[in-house]
Amino acid sequence: MMLNGAIRSAVTCNHHRRLLSANSGGSSPHSRLFHHFSPHQSGKFGSKTDKKSSGDDKDHTPVQTLNKSPIVQKLWKTRDEAKRRIMGNLTMGDGEYSEVSLAAAALIAEGRQGEYQPPAKLGKHPRESEVGIMYEFSTDQFLLETYRNPYGEMRFGKILEDLDALAGNIAFNHVEGNPLIVTAGVDRIRLRRRPDINVNQYLSGKVTWVGSSSMEIRMKISTNEDGSDEWLEAYFTFVTLNPTTKKAIKISPLIPETDEERSNFELGAMKAQAKREARKNKIQIGRQLSDESLQIDALAAKLLEEAGPLLRMPSLADPNTILMNETAQGNAMVAQPQARNLHDRIFGGFLMRRAYELAFATAYLFGGDRPRFLEVDEISFDKPVDVGDLLVFKSRVLYTMPNGGNLGQYVDNHEKLPLVNVEVEVWVTSPENRKAEVSNHLYFTFALPKSKTCKLVLPANIDQARRQASRMHADEVQAHLRRPT
Question: In whole angstroms, what is the distance from residue 392 CA to residue 439 CA?
Fold first, then answer.
């Protein structure tokens, strides 16, 4: 009983599409954003008097699980309820919802809607999608222990799960109707400093840019309710698909209102253009190489030449260099049903957390110094992962900056520290079919806070050289597209 009470009191949340009702009293806008709710309040998710029996509800009773954080469970619960309201489906009582959606019931309700209709509204303001959550670490011991790592600091793998869940709710707030919303990728997550886990923290976000069928979402975490003293920012990209045809559909445009929102919109447009250029410049057989591709190839050739002594005369090579192969780590697991998301596939935040923890261990083993997480450089979602899939996580140090580097003014006190960039690939493996496909590419940057330098990582073949050069180039491009502090 104490455990359930701790979970139920863990979150503060508000949705401008009335996913949760906001306080209509005379409180400040910030306190209304981080509105506290309780499972005993009526009218939030549907009170006991609203509950009606339904064949669908009886056939698909949600499964309760404690494998996800209280934050993720509450976010999914509110989104599932909002979807049911939109689809005209009967809702259940508050205490009967869980983080696992009823996929079959959703499909039945979806079928009642007929053909998908494009949004009729001319546009939406960023504030209409805004969602906020409060981590009540100062009063909720269960929540505090859920997010504490072995060193008494924040467990950032859990934060990655929350970011993915929150971004989904924000995206859902912006669209109209019930289209299929898919995470296309993570552009960047960067950390200004290490937060104090013993004080309350505030996670919030909203849509900052919208294209034809895609949207960018910016989230932040701060120690103050008004959003000041921000210590983390994250950018996620979502695409919207027709639920029936799975083809991209148009969504409501975004109407920025403030100077900051207009600046964010322009930055989002620049990043979208950079992505289009990157796709255009991707090497393809039979097509002439672009200038950018030629630059990457030239850098790859230089890196491979530098690795020559390690490859041909290892006993005479610089002892401060190491081949990329020698930094590799990995693990494998079967995707369990407890890691399902609202679509009954494996939760992307779960994959991000597992990849982060492997990347952290890889950087730790490589540097011999407990690494300090600085940023996620990029995450791609190339293939969905289903329950029961055999997942193989492979990591390696892709490149290093032994004498330090500059990630921008947002990240505090890192310029003189050795930096380690770790690549993690998630493979969906089918031993029966002798087949394996990559579902995710993830890139993390760590600093070695107690080291003066580290080994220079070099490629062992042309493929590794191109991968290393491409990542270096991508990070350089990203550096010019960062939001100013």
Answer: 10
Round to whole Å and give the CA distance between 402 and 322. 12
Q: What is the pLDDT of residue 283?
A: 53
Q: What's the CA gap between 98 and 121, in Å, rounded?
A: 32
CA–chain centroid gap for 185, Å, is 8
Please report the beta strands in 325-371, taking only residues with DSSP state E, as ranges in sequence order: 329-334
Nearest to 88 by CA among 22, 15, 177: 177
The model's pTM: 0.80
Run of H or E including 400: strand 390-401
Burial of 344 (0-12, 13-18, 19+ CB in 10 A): middle
- Contact between 388 and 335 under an 8 Å Cβ cutoff? The reply is yes
Question: Is residue 284 classed exposed, middle or buried when 0-12, 13-18 and 19+ CB atoms within 10 A define those classes?
Answer: exposed
Give yes or no for a contact between 81 and 105, defined as CB atoms under 8 angstroms apart.
Answer: no
pLDDT exceeds 80 at position 104: no
Instruction: State residue 268 phi and psi, 5-degree precision.
Output: -60, -40
Beta-carbon contacts of residue 33 (< 8 Å; ≥ 6 apart) = 14, 22, 130, 132, 204
Share of the chain above pLDDT 70, in %: 74
- The region, left, alpha or beta by phi > 0 then psi within -120 to 50, assigned to residue 152 is left
pLDDT single digits (tens) 257-285: 999 999 999 999 988 888 777 776 665 55
